[in-house]
Amino acid sequence: MTDPDLTVGEIISSAVVRLSGAGCPSPEADAEQLALHATGWSRTQLIFSRRDTVPVDSPLVQVFPELIGRREAREPLQHIIGTAPMMDLDLLVGPGVFVPRPETELLVDWAAKRLKAGDLVVDLCTGSGAIALGIAAQVPGVQVIGVEADPVALEWARRNAERISTNSTVEFIAGDATDPELLTELTGRCTAVLSNPPYVPEATTVDPEVRADPHHAVFGGADGLDVIRPMMKNIKRLLDDASFTAVEHDDDGAGGVAQAFIDAGFTDPRVHRDLAGRDRFTTAVE
After folding, report:
1. Which candidate in 160, 172, 196, 198 is catalytic?
2. Distance, CA of 224 to CA of 253 (rounded, Å)
3. Torsion sign, CA atoms 103, 72, 159, 154
4. Among 98, 219, 266, 281, which one carries the catalytic annotation?
5. Model pLDDT, residue 4
6. What are phi and psi of 118, to 5 degrees?
7. Candidates 27, 197, 198, 269; catalytic one
């Protein structure tokens, strides 16, 4: 039971204190998201209910504390809620698949502005299908193929494709982004090859939430380039004569990725920064 005089705002404020004490990076936003998830309220309802007292049968009493406890233990917010945002999409995520981050939206937006109906796009290391479905939703009429080596992640991507309707064709296939025999039937036919591969250097200290992602989807060897280097040959082979590529990378990895582009035969790779001013993805034009 709860104190009958407690208000919605007081319950959420108490949760914020707990999450802050646990080291969660955004305790206020997390507490509000979990309150919305528990109650089914809109954000407007939450704002206008903050001074209301909370009855003992409210989800804020029956459900919310358990959710806060899970987040306090640093279980990813997206695992608790069951979805992660990508552009205007909500992607199903959970254990066994990399949780997409907001920074990847910048890559999707950059690529979408350069695509049109009829273009063929390959998304290597697709994970939950974030880039593939983001492009399909942004650019009606494109054909997108998402490639994923991990069978668990591939199933998440396919589930997302089943529930997210677009005016494009999206297919997810099993495959290793570094395999020289990957998609040989599409050699020289792709308008764009995009990727958010594993790129974090192995020795990097990361938050507990990142540790909840599959290790092989996050870490890319000693310098973060173990997947990116061999993947470049496939990217170069798949692209047609008037196409482009974009690869996300660690904020200290731009130089290595640019060199990998050059070694694969690309010229003039260009680094793009995220909203915090950190190097985030590198592009090249065929």
Report:
1. 196
2. 7
3. positive
4. 98
5. 62
6. 95, -15
7. 197
